[in-house]
Specification:
There is one protein chain. The chain is 52% helix and 0% strand. By secondary structure, the chain is mainly α. The chain is rod-shaped, with a radius of gyration of 46 Å.
């Protein structure tokens, strides 16, 4: 009977698994002053992060606004057609009137019948001699 017998009492041969040790690292206890400083640092970093996001949003809005302004900007030719506010209430000379009408005509703006008659005067030339 020196031969080992199999299947009779094998449970005694199975070993229970060892439990893994969880390493616990003790944190040093903080003083109330250190806790206050940590909270203050956390508040400051949160405030700075908020400022950074606000600046990024403002920059994005600004670029969108500049793009929109660029689309709706008027050309220099159109700018010349505008009258200065300093000329409001002043009497316009005939030369200034003719100059303004010529600019409008060159820009492709339709002139009224009155403006056309001012700009193009009919002169009758009689050859009586």
């Amino acid at each position: 009977k020196d031969e080992p017998t199999y299947g009779e009492d094998d449970t005694a041969l199975v070993l229970a698994p060892k439990k893994k040790r969880v390493k616990t690292r003790k944190m040093p206890e903080l003083t109330p002053q250190e806790i206050r400083q940590a909270k203050l640092l956390q508040k400051n970093s949160a405030r700075k992060l908020k400022q950074l996001t606000e600046r990024a949003q403002q920059k994005k809005k600004r670029t969108e606004l500049y793009a929109k302004l660029q689309e709706t900007a008027i050309s220099s030719e159109e700018m010349q057609l505008l009258a200065s506010s300093s000329t409001l209430g002043k009497r316009e000379t005939k030369r200034e009137t003719l100059k303004r009408l010529i600019q409008r005509e060159r820009a492709g703006i339709a002139l009224t019948a009155e403006e056309t008659s001012i700009l193009y005067q009919n002169i009758d030339v009689n050859d009586d001699e």
